[in-house]
Amino acid sequence: MRKKPATVRIARWSATHPWSAIGLWAVFVALCLFLGGAVGSNKLDEQESGVRESGRAGKITVDGDFPETPEENVLITTASGGPLDAGKARAAARDLAARMAALPEVAKVEDPVPAENGKALLVPVEMKGEADDAASNVPPLLDVSAEVEDAHEGLHIDQVGTGSTAKGMQDTIGEDFKKAELISLPLTLLILLVVFGAVIAAGVPVILALSCVVTAMGLSHLASHVLPETSAISNVILLMGMAVGVDYSLFYLKREREERRKGKGHIDAIEIAAETSGHTVVVSGTTVIVAMAGLYLAQEATFASLATGSIIVVAVAVLASVTVLPALLGKLGRWVDRPRMPVLWRLTMREGESRVWPVLLRPALVKPFLTLVVSVGALLALALPALDMKLKQPGSDDLSRDIPVVQAMDRLTEAFPSEGTVHKVAVRAPAGEAGQVQAALKELLGRTEGNPLFAHDQKPVIRESDDHRVHTVDVGTPYQPKHPKATESLKKLRAWVPEVLSDVPDSEGAVGGKVAQGLDFTGHLKARMPWVVGFVLLLTMGTMAFIFRSLAVALSAVVLNLLSTAAAFGVLVAVFQNSWAESLLDFESTGAVVSWLPLFLFVVLFGLSMDYHVFVVSRIREAALEGSAVKEAVRDGITRSAGVVTSAAVVMIGVFAIFGTLNAIEFKQLGVGLAAAIALDAVIIRIFVLPALMAALGRWNWWPSRLATATPQPAAEPVGAPRHAARHAAPAAYDTPTQNLATRDLPPTTAHQPMPPQAPEGADSTVPYARRWPEGPVQHQHHQEPPRPGGHS
């Protein structure tokens, strides 16, 4: 007897020992949460995580070990925005200073600084404590600013600094994500109610996905002590975890329900789901993980963090699907289909073949070459805007101007440009050369005097480390980071720094800051992208070739995913580099795509698209193994998988689209890009391009496996039965390209004999996986077992 695959053995144990499996999963989740909370997270230091020259500048600054003192800037202006009455402004500044100095959170209050335009007065305030705690310590200071504004009629008080800016952004973006979470869960549940028509069946994938998300967050905290994590990692884990967690459970649940409807016993249905959809989940999850691993080749800390978080949550989702999900189904039994939603339940339980999908597939199967030309042409047309893609690092200038803290920052930088866009010059040299470094930096600042590319409202201050080895100075520019003049000023400084340091022995200088980081990051990505793309393409193609034993399937999978990804990039550029969709999506175009998005989207989309590709092509190959001709196999495979693939795609589109409603431009672009790509993949690729391509290739789809040369055998049908009735009366054998279930676990002498019909539900089944066989002669040839892909034993 052939040994059952691991997914089946695990599922059977879980289904027959449900409380043990559920208990072990609960302990695992609790342990991950406890350990993650106990060790905390190791956040990525932006200064140390840069690349190229800005990265060197950050490392030099960190080497200087300068104390990070949290600072606040209190800006006094008129409520009307006009000229400031000096007397009233100074009276307000004295009141402010007295109240601030009395606070335990304040270390000292500096003398007021008037703006050159006479419209503002700036009061610098130094806080106590660590910079990381500034956001939680700043509320008393904000209260004082509000009290002073109330006490001095006609004046407007703004506060911008380490704590106030962090708190303002946390309040705004945090509320955004809370809103997204509150919308995503009911929306996902609603979609699943439509899919299953039963409350418990709809709730199981959501609960399981949430458990995967919290588990992955705990594990990511542990992993951050090896690879520091970026602040966006929790959002990415939520996004990926809900998408793949729900999808994987959906695949499994749909197949288990399908087998029960065909008369399988409860445990038998779970085992078939484990060997088919369970195996598909493992393969698909592995493909996503392989794709995400390509981000490590970017050799950049943020991408490494995103890759780690994504890999963890996908691995946890796969683990949950093959372990605790069978236990839940085993314990719930037929209660998984309770309580039923009257109308939706009848729709989900309709008998017979779908009438919609054969109609949709007809153009691809009747005129494959024409359909292929038209559909590929449409995708290429959508991809055209991507040729004009411009990349840019997100910054404060990309935030919505409706956010109060952003408005305060705008008023501050208008009055004091040196507080806005800043270039950070860092120099490291032997301690004995400290005097020469000071002189060189003064010469550098002298070159900026009178130059309109630089700000002159405040005199730059040169800082020196305690060991006299590191010196830094901030040089402001009156332009926003995205302005070409800001980039021009950066290039000037980078040309001058080596010149002024030429006479300082063993010195190393670099220029960093937001503008420099954006420029260097974009250049670094352009250099590393071929390596990442090449890795993902080769590994994905190799994985598909191994699974399906077909180079043609592997190559077509890569080409189709490249097409859908390119089209998604075109949509992204058309929407966000232009202004026509601003009112629709509530954003202000920056004229560029966030620089880290294309690479991240590429690997995510490649992984997620492969999920659907593996699922659909597996069902097509299953029909081919049963002896169907290529077009019939394509028709049957897509028709039988269309419902679950469409449902999974709708769930993903719903989750991703919610991120398109957030204020932060990077998450808005991420959500729209992912949603557009999944929609294109589910509609154009799966309905038109894939079936047309496979129909056009014919037997070459399976080259060089045996299927490429096998002679198709029509399935036996009862006399008078409608076309395809026999095939659809029999249960689908596999979601994955494995052996024909008709010969499974049977001795050679009986493997090709007709089997009796499945016993009625509730009867004792003596033959697991027994199939209903149509009347008439049995065709032996199409029950010959081909080599098993994927290496199953």
Sketch the major β-sheet: 5 strands, antiparallel
Strand content: 5-15%
Cα separation of the termini: 11 Å
Mean pLDDT equals 80
Spatial extent as radius of gyration: 31 Å
Helix content: 55-70%
Number of E-state strands? 11
The number of helical runs is 25
Shape: elongated
From the helix content, strand content and strand pairing, which structural class follows? alpha+beta
Low-confidence stretches: 715-793
Question: Mind sketching the topology for me?
Answer:
Elements: H1 6-16, H2 18-39, H3 52-63, E1 71-78, H4 86-101, E2 106-109, E3 113-114, E4 121-127, H5 134-137, H6 139-151, E5 155-161, H7 162-196, H8 199-223, H9 233-261, H10 266-293, H11 301-322, H12 324-332, H13 342-348, H14 356-366, H15 368-383, E6 391-392, H16 404-415, E7 421-428, H17 434-448, E8 462-464, E9 470-477, H18 484-500, E10 508-513, H19 514-548, H20 551-576, H21 582-585, E11 593-594, H22 597-625, H23 630-659, H24 665-697, H25 725-729
Helix pairs in contact: 1-2, 1-10, 1-12, 2-8, 2-12, 3-19, 4-6, 7-8, 7-23, 8-9, 8-11, 9-10, 9-11, 9-23, 10-11, 10-19, 10-22, 14-15, 14-23, 14-24, 15-20, 15-24, 17-18, 19-20, 19-22, 20-22, 20-24, 22-23, 22-24, 23-24
